[in-house]
Design brief:
Layout (H helix, E strand, L loop, with lengths): L31 H17 L23 E4 L3 H12 L6 E5 L6 H13 L6 E5 L6 H8 L9 E5 L6 H13 L6 E5 L7 H11 L8 E5 L7 H13 L5 E5 L7 H5 L13 E5 L6 H12 L7 E5 L6 H14 L5 E5 L6 H12 L7 E5 L6 H12 L7 E5 L8 H7 L11 E5 L7 H14 L5 E5 L18 H4 L20
Parallel strand pairs: 1-2, 2-3, 3-4, 4-5, 5-6, 6-7, 7-8, 8-9, 9-10, 10-11, 11-12, 12-13, 13-14
Helix pairs in contact: 2-3, 3-4, 4-5, 5-6, 6-7, 9-10, 10-11, 11-12, 12-13, 13-14
Length: 504
């Protein structure tokens, strides 16, 4: 299958010098007020690098236009310019695509009404991208959006993050969706809006019988009041959308448990043509058992090329990590994977199960893997490196093993010889801060990377704040991973820059 691995590739136990003790104990988490403060500080830092922080909404790139269009984009930066928005919109009466951002401007209900009327006046409009993030529009502003019900959209993107709309305001969006028959793309950003389970049930009812044409669905509901009942309604939406190819579902920092995720076991049909899936569940107390049910459902998506899972602080444990390994080995078409398992007590045995799945990925080209603060030990970390160096197709790697993984110089001595397997790697980001690697270990890894990776164009190497490794001297071109990495199924960027978790 493509430029894959040898069928003889395997994960082997590390040498006795770094093998874990039979009675290995995992250190406890931080406790008390001081520990909580440190945890929130670290959590904010991790979310800054989260898979959901790729770009702002108004920088999103369409995979393919619905028809030849000349979009007009007005990104308004002050109250005075908001007053000009209706005239600016009406100056392009033939526009079929409109992208308009008024984010973080407290524009008020009256201004929303005028903007919506101007949008409605565009007789040829079939695609709308409206960013009202943190505009304080409230329920009244949402009510004004219902005027757009008469416009028959093919693509509708609404960013209403942090507007305190609640279920009452969300009902206006439900009414808007109810009258849409031609939608191929829906993106709803409704993070931090006090939305409860009943609102999702209403959305499922509004989309019933209308999902046959829908190909691209992105639903952002982080930091609301959603629980297991909402999960069942999300599943009803997915089962109704039989033509989906791209899906984002963001439920971070809600109240989803294993019971809610268990319903996802039947959410994805084996005949699905989905090629790109992003699910964000960070901060929900789920556990390994619940995640296994989710992974069983995702395992039906045999056409997936891109998979992103944001699972930090979900109590995945070693069972969840092993489940991910099994899932990765089943999805043979995967080329691009982003996996955040920060602070999940994966441990040695979880690392072993994950490594056994990674080594089976014959078509993987790009991987972002965050296993920070997971008590892997030097032996578990060795297994991860061993698996990754056997993926011959891999071209871009971001590996984060920072903090509380107990990697020391003896681990770097075992890892360094493995790196010859990265001869085809073009981009590498490696994070080992907060471990026990000395200057000698840094030098050993740096030298090994320089010698083993002749194709490397980008190197970010961060092991110890006092001991920074310099990039190889023979690299004349320094470019970022974001520039070298391209989505295989689309050029789309994710749409939400997250606020600090639990900051209210």
């Amino acid at each position: 299958m493509g430029c894959g691995n040898s069928k003889n590739a395997q994960v082997t136990e590390p040498k006795a010098a770094i093998k874990p003790e039979d009675n290995e104990q995992i250190p406890p988490t931080d406790r008390g007020p001081a520990g909580d403060s440190a945890r929130r500080s670290k959590e904010n830092s991790i979310l800054d690098k989260s898979i959901l922080n790729k770009s702002l909404l108004n920088q999103s790139i369409q995979k393919s236009p619905l028809k030849p269009i000349q979009p007009i984009e007005h990104h308004l930066g002050s109250i005075d310019k908001v007053d000009e928005a209706p005239r600016m919109i009406q100056s392009k009466p033939e526009a079929t695509d409109l992208a308009l951002s008024m984010a973080k401007i407290p524009i008020g209900t009256a201004a929303i009404e005028e903007v919506v009327k101007a949008i409605k006046s565009l007789g040829n409009l079939n695609s709308l991208d409206l960013n009202l993030d943190s505009c304080k529009i409230g329920v009244g502003g949402c009510e004004k959006l219902k005027v757009l019900s008469s416009v028959k959209f093919e693509a509708l993107k609404l960013n209403l993050n942090s507007n305190e709309i609640g279920n009452e305001g969300f009902q206006a969006l439900i009414d808007l969706l109810t009258d849409q028959e031609n939608l191929k793309t829906i993106e709803l950003c409704c993070n931090k809006n006090m939305i409860e389970n009943e609102a999702i049930r209403g959305m499922a009812q509004a989309l019933e019988g209308k999902g046959g044409n829908l190909e691209d669905l992105a639903l952002f509901f982080a930091q609301n009041y959603l629980g297991d009942e909402a999960c069942k309604d999300f599943i009803n939406i997915l089962q109704n959308c039989t033509s989906l190819r791209y899906l984002i579902l963001d439920l971070r920092q809600n109240s989803v448990s294993a019971e809610g995720l268990s319903a996802f076991k039947t959410a994805f049909d084996p005949s699905s043509q989905m090629v790109e899936l992003t699910m964000a569940l960070a901060g929900n107390v789920i556990g390994g058992e619940g995640l296994l049910e989710l992974f069983e459902g995702i395992g039906n998506l045999k056409q997936l090329r891109t998979l992103r899972l944001e699972l930090s602080e979900t109590k995945a444990g070693h069972d969840g990590a092993r489940g991910i390994g099994t899932l990765l080995s089943q999805l043979e078409a995967l080329e691009d994977v982003e996996l955040n398992l920060w602070r999940n007590f994966v441990g040695y045995h979880g690392a072993l199960g994950l490594a056994e799945g990674l080594v089976e990925m014959e078509n993987l080209q790009s991987l972002e893997l965050n296993l920070g603060s997971n008590f892997l030990g030097k032996e578990g970390s060795f297994l991860i490196f061993q698996a990754l160096t056997q993926i011959q197709s891999l071209r871009a790697l971001n590996l984060d093993l920072h903090e509380n993984n107990f990697i020391d110089d003896s681990a770097t001595e075992a890892i360094a010889p493995l790196l010859s397997g990265w001869s085809g790697l073009q981009s590498l980001e490696l994070y080992l801060l907060g471990n026990e690697v000395s200057g000698r270990g840094v030098a050993l890894l740096s030298t090994s990377i320089t010698k083993s990776c002749p194709s490397l164009q980008t190197l970010s190497f961060d092991l110890n704040p006092k001991l920074q490794a310099s990039p190889p001297a023979n690299r004349s071109k320094e470019i970022s991973l974001a520039q070298t990495k391209k989505s295989k199924s689309s050029s789309r960027c994710l749409l939400y820059t997250s606020p600090s978790p639990r900051d209210s």
